[in-house]
Amino acid sequence: MSDKTKKQQILDTALSLFVHQGFYATSTASIAKAAGVATGTLFHHFSSKEALMNQLFLNIKQGFADGIQAQMLHSGDFKRDTEHLWQAAIQWALEHPLRQSFFQQYSLSPAVSESIRQQAMHETLGFLSTMLQQGQVLGLLAKHPLHLMLANCHGQYLASAQFFIENPEKWGDAAHREASFTMMWRSIAK
């Protein structure tokens, strides 16, 4: 197994264990054992369990960002494009339930350092800030502080994604899909 493969195996195993057992209940030894690598190999790639958590958090956020950015529309209709992006984000959650469970558990957890959360929000997901600012310039979104709008949208996303994961049949219902967007939109619209 190559170094890159071992590192990814460690990350994949840590994801599963952190979601199912919790960060504090999961030891580096248990991650290494479940990944089929020596504990020394884990520490070769990650200096600590916290470093492993931070890398996992950034990797998942990047995968999320890449996934939804690939679905972005540029139709010229800001609200329509925003709704399409919102639905792409929920669809990502449904297609990646383990990763979404990780978000649910660790988005605000002290197990992820504040600097890593900020990096994920402002660098990895920076296009969302740009989009919100564009909506403000167009006069479609309220002139609320940007960081507060991002936090609100994030919270609404987590709540909606969890609802649809628990009720996947509702995602097929246009009224539920549209309502999830409408509730978020009304919280930021002018």
From TrEMBL:
It comes from the Bacteria. Residues 27-46 bind DNA. One of its GO terms (molecular function) is DNA binding. InterPro entries: DNA-bd_HTH_TetR-type_CS (IPR023772), Homeodomain-like_sf (IPR009057), HTH-type_TetR-like_transc_reg (IPR050109), HTH_TetR (IPR001647). SUPFAM superfamilies: Homeodomain-like. Keywords: DNA-binding. Coiled coil: none annotated. This is TetR family transcriptional regulator. It comes from Shewanella gelidii. The gene is calR.
